[in-house]
């Protein structure tokens, strides 16, 4: 039984999900761009994907951050980091779930985010403006990029997402879970870390696997 448990556990560690832009398996990517550089030693994303993660209207998903006017840079960097984590991290195995969409077979669900990462995201985005709670679905795509659905009102994030937990848990339909765990606790995934200190999310994936 122990061997079977080990095999299952190992299959949750150092893996890439089966999704639109992910590599089939993680490996070094020397040329990762910008905020995605944290994962260059071992990544599920290519250099191209990392470059596109920083574009306002990237071909990754044709998603427009500025659907209710320009998103402030200090807020946008969290969405770029969120994209880098999603596309590049090989440490999300314990939270990979089946997805029944045309563009991906797997997604992440309930990834335990460190409290600081979630709070800072909310703090920096509270005055940004959006018209939707769940950004995964319900947009008007007739122009080829996401626009607010008819009748949806643009409001500041702090009214759409009254708490940091609401933002992290609702915006990508449950991909993240707000936790009271702190960075460095080994119990939560960090969107941000210092690569010189190594990747703290490896130990977190091991703990949950």
From TrEMBL:
Protein's UniProt keywords contain Signal: yes
GO molecular function terms attached to this record: signaling receptor activity
Pfam family, one: Folate_rec
UniProt key word Isomerase: no
One GO CC term on file: external side of plasma membrane
Residue ranges constituting the Folate receptor-like domain according to the UniProt record: 15-190
Annotated keywords: Disulfide bond, Signal
Source taxon at top rank: Eukaryota
InterPro entries assigned: Folate_rcpt, Folate_rcpt-like
Family: Belongs to the folate receptor family.
Protein name: FOLR1 protein
Originating organism: Dasyornis broadbenti
Lineage per the UniProt record: Eukaryota, Metazoa, Chordata, Craniata, Vertebrata
Gene symbol of the encoding locus: Folr1_1
């Amino acid at each position: 039984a122990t061997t079977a448990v080990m095999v299952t556990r190992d299959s949750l560690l150092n893996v890439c999900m089966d999704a639109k832009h992910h590599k089939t398996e993680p490996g070094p990517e020397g040329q990762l761009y910008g905020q995605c550089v944290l994962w260059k030693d071992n990544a599920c994303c290519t250099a191209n994907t990392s470059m596109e993660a920083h574009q306002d209207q990237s071909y990754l998903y044709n998603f427009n951050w500025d659907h209710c006017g320009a998103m402030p840079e200090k807020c946008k960097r969290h969405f770029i980091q969120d994209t880098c984590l999603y596309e590049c991290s090989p440490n999300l195995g314990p939270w990979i779930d089946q997805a029944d969409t045309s563009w991906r077979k797997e997604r992440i669900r309930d990834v335990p985010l460190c409290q600081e990462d979630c709070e800072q995201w909310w703090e920096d985005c509270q005055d940004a403006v959006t018209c939707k709670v769940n950004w995964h679905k319900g947009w008007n795509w007739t122009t080829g990029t996401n626009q607010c659905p008819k009748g949806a009102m643009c409001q500041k994030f702090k009214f759409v997402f009254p708490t940091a937990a609401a933002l992290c848990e609702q915006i990508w339909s449950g991909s993240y879970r707000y936790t009271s765990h702190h960075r460095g606790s080994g119990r939560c995934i960090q969107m941000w870390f210092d690569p010189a200190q190594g990747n703290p999310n490896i130990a977190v994936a091991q703990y949950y696997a």
